[in-house]
Specification:
Elements (H helix, E strand, L loop, with lengths): L3 H5 L32 H7 L21 E3 L11 E3 H4 L3 E3 L9 E3 L2 E2 L1 H9 L3 E3 L15
Parallel strand pairs: 1-3, 2-4, 3-5, 4-6
Length: 142
């Protein structure tokens, strides 16, 4: 029996497939996401809403301020004594989640009001950089 390819060899221009069906991905309208702005626009509208365009925004890295924070409840496992310098440990901010059981003297750049209240209620103190007259978060204007 003669194969389909050999059957059309020499007799037919398109081998029974039509003009574009035999060329690459012609019959399916291109490969992958080809044509989503043209002939596959209904597919894009139904299955890819929001495919094009900008989504959200990114601030410049110099404007971003990301605090490395720690909660009050995690302080008891960090120290053996009664003084903790969180700035030297790499923490920027003290937050007030959880209980604190022993009085500690804490040095940190920033602290939330709730964290300060909890530490002082336990008999400890919190000293921040803003108390020392330094304000590290703002630029100095000349």
């Amino acid at each position: 029996m003669v194969s389909r390819t050999n059957k059309f060899r020499g007799r037919s221009r398109y081998h029974g497939r039509g003009k574009k069906a035999g060329r690459g991905a012609g019959k399916r309208g291109g490969r992958g996401r080809a044509g989503i702005g043209k002939h596959k626009v209904m597919f894009r509208n139904k299955y890819l809403p929001g495919h094009w365009g900008m989504h959200g925004f990114n601030r410049h890295p110099s404007l971003r301020k990301v605090n490395v924070s720690i909660n009050v409840s995690e302080l008891s496992g960090l120290t053996d004594g009664d003084e903790v310098n969180l700035t030297e440990m790499g923490y920027d901010k003290l937050l007030g989640k959880g209980p604190i059981s022993k009085p500690l003297k804490i040095i940190v750049d920033e602290a939330s009001p709730r964290a300060i209240a909890k530490v002082e209620a336990a008999g400890g103190t919190v000293s921040t950089s803003s108390e020392d007259g330094e304000d590290w978060g703002e630029w100095e204007e000349e």
